[in-house]
Amino acid sequence: MTQQVIHPMVKMQRQVRSLVESNLIKPSDSLWKIALLYGDEWPHWKKELLEFGFTTQDPISDLLAVEAWEEE
């Protein structure tokens, strides 16, 4: 039995989707809004988002629209 490793961005994307479904944030909110929820972990996630071409001004819906996270 082989175990597939989930990309860390997939985990983050799932957490953010859960926040949207719980109505804590809206898909139209900017990504910077999740900084308030991630606290001390935000610098790491911000760096990851920037490496994937996002800005903190992008809507959360852009993050949720990603179907596959691949490193270059």
TrEMBL record:
Q: What is this protein called?
A: DUF4327 family protein
Species the sequence originates in: Aerosakkonema funiforme FACHB-1375
